[in-house]
Amino acid sequence: MPTPPFVDVHAHFVTDRYVEEARAAGHLHPDGMPGWPDWSPAGHLAMMDRAGIGKAMLSVSSPGTHFGQDTAARSLTRHVNEYAARLRAQHPDRFGHFASLPLPDVQGSVAEAGHALDVLGAHGLAVETNSHGIYLGNEKFEPLWEELDRHGAVVFVHPTSPPGAEDISLGRPRPMMEFLFDSARAASDLVLNGVLERRPNIRWIFTHGGGVLPLLTDRIQLFATALAKAHADTAPVRDQLARMWFDLAGTPFPRQVPALVDLVGDQHLLYGSDYCWTPADMAIEQAASIDSADQPEADTWRALTSRNARRLLESRPTASVRGVHR
């Protein structure tokens, strides 16, 4: 395994029950993708060994765990979270966990967040950029952000299809373009609705280098000022975004990372594989592309992102949960 090994903050898993319930809800081609990926703990560990990944933070990807009914979503969310906790207990040196929440069910999400952090010992929570069209800055979510701010929680924000995605994606998979715009939309919503200022203890991770944020930040600032969304005592948009953390899943080099570093610096950059939605061979090639890219001065992307990940995640407790059943 290359030294130092990557810490992967963007790694996904599925269970048989999860896929069955998603398909029953109509997600046969989630986000316009051909179908559901195959996944197993053994296959994930084999990919990690080949790519030089020491530890991976597991999470459920889009379309999340809420398929229209709150009670069913709470049950499915608890299932995937307890599964991941049991798997992490079996492989404590290899797997961590960002627990799912049944958004847009806020009451259920507050309860599940407490269980995940305080009982299961999750390293953080995973949410989507929007939940059935409700974005993260919506006032409906304030009770959840208040609770997570109290915990000083890590919140991993994964993109999903925006409302009306079928009309704008031109028949192509939404992860190609729409995910990158929805990440920027969600981040700007947090900024413009004041969530980052009101809840400074939440540590947000955005994926794929923030999507198109590096190109849009100055424009967001322009409109924030023009629309009086930025008050005299409000930090500039760029400064607020620099508090966030960003993973390098996707195509970080040669163009995206330089733009992101110019925007926010390199102390909040993290590695992400996006496995299992990114097939193993592609994830391994992406890790190799990071190793072969121009490296930061007197450093490497492996060492830099791994140090950053440890600094972000080291405060979370671990939990011991018995048994793993897929």
Task: Report what the structure shows.
The two termini are 28 Å apart. β2, α3 (70-90) and β3 (95-100) form a beta-alpha-beta unit. α3 runs parallel beside α4. The chain has helices spanning 16-24, 41-51, 70-90, 106-119, 142-151, 165-168, 178-192, 195-198, 213-226, 237-241, 252-264, 280-292, 301-313, and strands at 6-12, 53-59, 95-100, 124-128, 130-131, 134-135, 154-158, 203-206, 245-247, 269-270. With 326 residues, it is α/β, with parallel strands linked by helices. The strands form 2 sheets. It has an 8-stranded parallel beta sheet.
Helix percent band: 40-55%
Q: Output mean pLDDT.
A: 94
Number of strands: 10
The largest sheet, given as strand count, sense and whether it forms a barrel, is: 8 strands, parallel
Elements, N to C (H/E): EHHEHEHEEEHEHHHEHHEHEHH
Low-confidence stretches: 316-326
> What is the terminal-to-terminal distance?
28 Å
Shape by Cα distribution: globular
Strand order of the largest sheet: 1-2-3-4-7-8-9-10
Radius of gyration from the alpha-carbon trace, in angstroms: 18 Å
- Provide the β-strand percentage band: 5-15%
Structural class: alpha/beta
The DSSP helix count reads: 13
